[in-house]
Amino acid sequence: MTHQATLTASAPPAARRRFNFSKITPWLWLAPAIALFVPFFIIPMAVVFRYSFNRDDPMALMVSDFTFENYANILTDTYYLTVFSNSVLVSLGVTLGTLALGYPFAYFLVRYARKSRGFLLWAVYLPLMVSVIVRAFGWIVITADTGLINSVLLGLGILKQPLIMLFELESMVPAMIHRYLPLMVLPLINAIGKIDDTLYSASANLGAGRLRTFRRVIFPLTAPGIVAGSQLVFANVLSDFVIPNLLGSTRFRLLAPVIYEEAAIQVAWATAASLAIVMLIIVSLMLLISNITFRRLAPWARTL
């Protein structure tokens, strides 16, 4: 014991420097991300957070202050409460819609697609390369009174009058599902692809059919992909500005367009800042609740 202590004490300074360098190596790898994260996210959000406690003044735009009046107004005003509830409901609905469409697609792509796998992956990535404005105008063409859907239904005699879909939820929600479907599919593809093929045969050898194997083995193992995809879709839908602005209804307001209107049209910067902070809190709570629920219901999935 004494001999080992003597060797440690007499170790050359170069060895100790190498040991210290190994401790900071992870931080060196993180340095580029931190260099972007701090000036382009932390500092702007800190400014917005500070603005949220200021006071709007029609004559002076915004007056420096420290008051909770903005938060009290938006959390008690029925208009803003309706905007919050609308945004959360649409975010949940789009999340469930992308999961319902994306899970079978991802499962088929991983398990059964062989020759067509490259084409299907290309079909997933392609919408990410097209401007969201172009896709929004595409949905305008599809859901207009004289658009594709109404033309087909009227031509087949199913309808006598065109459906009113444009600038309503009926056009906005499908457009959002189309936009954010890749964010759900890609984590699911990764989760399903990690499942060992021997688990399917082992489950069959134990007497389980395909449905039971999927319900008791496959679906629980894909829980990390479901949670990751749901978090990505929910957060992006809640902060979406383009599609609600181009396809949404003025009778059904969502949070991001309202924040823009408060800042750019009403010139109520303090109110807009407080709305933005509440939106960030909603997203953070959703991520926290989903992570806690996931860890309690599927603690075994942490190692996947």
From TrEMBL:
The organism named in the record is Aureimonas fodinaquatilis
Superkingdom of the source species: Bacteria
- Principal location class: membrane
The record, for Pfam families, names:
BPD_transp_1 (PF00528)
Similarity comment: family membership: Belongs to the binding-protein-dependent transport system permease family. CysTW subfamily.
State the UniProt keywords alphabetically.
Cell membrane, Membrane, Transmembrane, Transmembrane helix, Transport
Q: How does it sit in the membrane?
A: Multi-pass membrane protein
Using the record's annotation, list all stretches that form the ABC transmembrane type-1 domain: 84-290
Q: Where is the chain membrane-spanning?
A: 27-53, 88-110, 119-142, 148-169, 217-243, 263-289
Q: Where in the cell is it found?
A: Cell membrane
Q: Which named protein is this? A: ABC transporter permease
SUPFAM superfamilies annotated for this entry? MetI-like
Q: Which GO terms describe its cellular component?
A: plasma membrane
Q: Which GO terms describe its biological process?
A: transmembrane transport
